[in-house]
Design brief:
With 292 residues, the protein is α+β, with helices and mostly antiparallel strands. The protein has three domains: 3-92, Rossmann fold, CATH 3.40.50.20; 101-116 and 185-276, ATP-grasp fold, B domain (D-amino Acid Aminotransferase, Chain A, domain 1); 121-181, Dna Ligase, domain 1 (2-Layer Sandwich). Helices cover 36% and strands 25% of the residues. It is built from ten helices and 16 strands. It has a five-stranded antiparallel β-sheet. A hairpin with a 2-residue loop joins β4 and β5 (52-53). The relative contact order is 0.14. Magnesium ion (MG) is lined by residues 213, 248, 260.
Length: 292
């Protein structure tokens, strides 16, 4: 039994936790980053990193954040993961789930198909259509980059002139306008950590502004979430095909709304307020899943 950990930084907090969980169980592992992988076609080994033949020598690969890169780099990385999967290689998360989760339109489109409540959202390449929708969505919206994380680039807009300027700037740079009704959540939300068909840990993230990302300084607080929220989180993870997921739930005046499913979640904040060791749970889950 040997694991791989795909990470830019093996010393990063969550990666370190996974390494410790593997060490405890005496499971050997190798850490590597995407740019080091060599892919071969029509001769083997198909995937090699340093001296490791990935498909032959590893039993499972844990994929930490896939990272930034050019479109070409990211598409190549995903293409490699898809080929590995076609060869029967086990990955957490599966490549299709990672692909869905980098794309905020795609996540919510899938969630809606699966009957998971999402905020009213509009995406378009047309500035005029976006401006019309600004009022449809109550004149108070959050505009987000479709490919974004950690709340970066997300802007709350409640002035139509500002909206006009921002939409023109987005389309000038060939971006897609992605706009969502603002959900009054009172500066806190729920993060549910899903493994398979269970929520293994959860917290309330308490912020001083409307963005509740832990990476932006929100404070984690212990929170035992309701069965309804647990069900929604698991359904959301399954809708996008995640075995492991960090699901963000906003509690608005109209009820819970899922805004985000993270396929490569960190859990530094969550671990501070959880009784279970999350890395242990992830490793145990993978070991059980491999037996199936
Ligand atoms: N429609 C919304 N209304 C109110 N707050 C929002 C909305 N969408 C996002 N937020 C806040 O912004 C944070 C970041 O948005 P999110 O969609 O989760 O993207 P990211 O991938 O950057 O985390 C959320 O955790 C939430 O606090
Ligand atoms: Mg988020």
């Amino acid at each position: 039994m040997k694991f791989g950990i795909m990470t830019r930084n093996p010393e990063a907090w969550s990666s370190t936790q996974v390494r410790e969980a593997l060490n405890k169980r005496g499971i050997p592992y190798v850490c590597f980053s995407f740019p080091r992988i060599v892919a071969r076609l029509a001769y083997k080994p198909y995937f090699k990193v340093n001296d490791t033949n990935i498909l032959e020598e590893l039993d499972a690969l844990i994929i930490r954040p896939i990272g930034r890169g050019s479109l070409e780099e990211l598409v190549f990385r995903m293409d490699m993961l898809h080929k590995m999967e076609r060869r029967g290689f086990y990955m957490v998360n599966p490549p299709a789930a990672i692909e869905h989760c980098v794309d905020k339109y795609d996540i919510l489109a899938l969630l809606e198909d699966f009957g998971v409540p999402v905020p009213r959202t509009l995406a378009t390449e047309s500035v005029n259509e976006a401006l019309k929708a600004f009022n449809e969505l109550g004149g108070d919206v959050v505009v987000k980059p479709i490919f974004g994380s950690r709340g970066q680039g997300a802007t709350r807009i409640n002035d139509v002139d500002v909206a006009d300027t921002i939409f023109k700037a987005i389309t000038f740079h060939h971006g897609v306008i992605y706009m969502q009704e603002f959900i009054e959540h009172g500066f806190s939300d729920i993060r549910a950590f899903v493994l398979g068909d269970q929520v293994i840990a959860s917290m309330r993230r308490i912020a001083t502004g409307w963005k509740t990302n832990y990476s932006r300084g929100a404070r984690p607080a212990p929170e035992e979430i309701s069965d309804e929220h647990k069900e929604l989180a698991v359904k959301a993870a399954q809708a996008v095909g995640c075995k492991v997921a960090g699901v963000d739930i906003l509690e608005g005046p109209q009820g819970p709304r899922i805004v985000d499913v993270n396929s490569q979640p960190g859990w530094k904040g969550l671990q501070q307020v959880s009784n279970v060791n999350i890395a242990d749970k992830i490793v145990e889950f993978i070991l059980r899943d491999l037996k199936r």
